[in-house]
Design goal:
Strand content: 35-45%
Structural class: alpha+beta
Shape: globular
Number of strands: 6
Radius of gyration: 15 Å
């Protein structure tokens, strides 16, 4: 997993654009593109929360980074515990409250930040 996190954190995201944001029961898919590099999709598997508040008129990316701690992870775990108790049964049969979590932060050039809290990540180039 560290190689994926390092790849995301050490890449230059200037001139990349947010193309698509898809959500289903198990994952959040973020497709981004750049004229020279092409397209890639960041797959956030077994997510426990996401936020994108105040989107208006921007899709150009300033930065993407991944953290092992973050405010959305904390908030998501608090809500899960308040809804399902301190030791909830495994979510989707795979998520456990004490798992390691990642927070993906996609900052747009207008300052807005998309955040996704998830159990694991995958990057697919196409």
């Amino acid at each position: 997993m560290n190689s994926i996190v390092d790849k995301i954190n050490n890449s230059s995201w200037a001139d990349w654009s947010l193309d698509k944001f898809e959500i289903d029961y198990e994952r959040v898919l973020i497709t981004v593109s750049e004229d020279i590099e092409g397209n890639l999709t960041i797959c956030c598997k077994d997510y426990i929360g996401f936020s994108f508040i105040g989107h208006w008129d921007e899709s150009v990316i300033e930065e993407i980074n991944v953290e092992t701690y973050g405010s959305l992870i904390d908030e998501s775990l608090q809500v899960v515990k308040s809804l399902y108790g301190e030791s909830p049964l495994p979510g989707g049969g795979v998520k456990k409250i004490d798992d390691s979590w990642y927070q993906v932060n996609i900052k747009l050039i207008d300052g807005n930040i998309i955040k996704i809290a998830c159990k694991s990540l995958e990057v697919v180039e196409h």
